[in-house]
Amino acid sequence: MLPNVTSETVAESSYRRIRSDIIFGRLVPGQKLKLDGLKSAYGTSISTLREILNRLAADGLVLAEGQRGFEVSPVSVADLEEIADLRLLLETHALEQSIARGDMEWEARLVSAHYKLARMEEVMATGDTSRAEDWKRYDWEFHQALISACGSRLLMETHSGVFDKYLRYQMVALSYRGDVAAKEHQELLDAAIRRDGETAKRILVAHIGGGVEHALSKGKLRKAP
Q1: In terms of domains, do 57 and 149 share one?
Q2: Which of 55, 154, 163, 168 has its CA 20 to 30 A from that of 20?
Q3: Which of 72, 97, 130 is the last residue of a domain?
Q4: Cβ pair 38, 49 in contact under 8 A
């Protein structure tokens, strides 16, 4: 049994590494994923890589092209807008549930996650993008903390998958909005702590919409003709 456990651990680790490299742009949209190259880079067998890439295709992060192999899923304006709409639908519902059910432990998670994000936003505000991955990781942690008391593991997992796709677009455009986003995060925290669900949802709508508009303004995504 032990060899199988080890094999599963290596496969899961490689899956997480490749997924992370796609989300954070180290594997760029449209890039061909050649199995021999991936085998050397990730130290994983060809058969395991095929399973991982098919799993990532099911996640929507990789395209399986039959006999032509695999490539990183391309990006488009329409896809970003659809992902943002889905994120908003899931997150506003989960946020409402969390505000209604959250206890002191939830508040503590939220304050801690916001503190780390705010510190990283201070770094990004200086123009230093060398820690952009940390910035987006803390952004993910804050938004997960916001909805962590929603009472549904499936909702949390679904939101996480959608957020990863949204995050990939932000990394492609490196779309940090500066003080505007930082202010919205602070306002989200304040509204959640005082259990003002309507205000929190309104801020979240503006926050996600503003993120999409800013990403598009960077000019790295164009609407289809």
Answers
A1: no
A2: 154
A3: 72
A4: yes
Enter the tokens of residue 87: 């994120």
Residues 83 and 52 in one domain: no
Categorize the per-residue pLDDT at 95 as very low, low, confident or very high, splitting at 50, 70 and 90.
very high
Given a contact cutoff of 8 angstroms between Cβ atoms, the answer to whether 176 and 138 are in contact is no
Query: What's the pTM value of the predicted model, to 2 decimals?
Result: 0.84
Q: Per mean pLDDT, which range of 4-8, 105-109, 167-171, 179-183 is the poorest?
A: 4-8
Domain region containing 150: 77-217
Q: Are 29 and 73 in contact (CB under 8 A)?
A: yes
Whole-number pLDDT of residue 11: 83
43 shares its domain with 123: no
Q: Which of 132, 143, 116 is nearest to 171 (CA)?
A: 132
185 is written with which tokens?
Answer: 């995060």
Count of structural domains, the chain? 2
CA 146 – CA 110 distance, rounded (Å): 6
Inside any domain, residue 225:
no
- 61: domain CATH number? 1.10.10.10
Backbone angles phi, psi at 83, to 5 degrees: -65, -45
The distance from CA 121 to its chain's CA centroid, rounded to whole angstroms, is 17
Contact 215, 133 (CB under 8 A): no
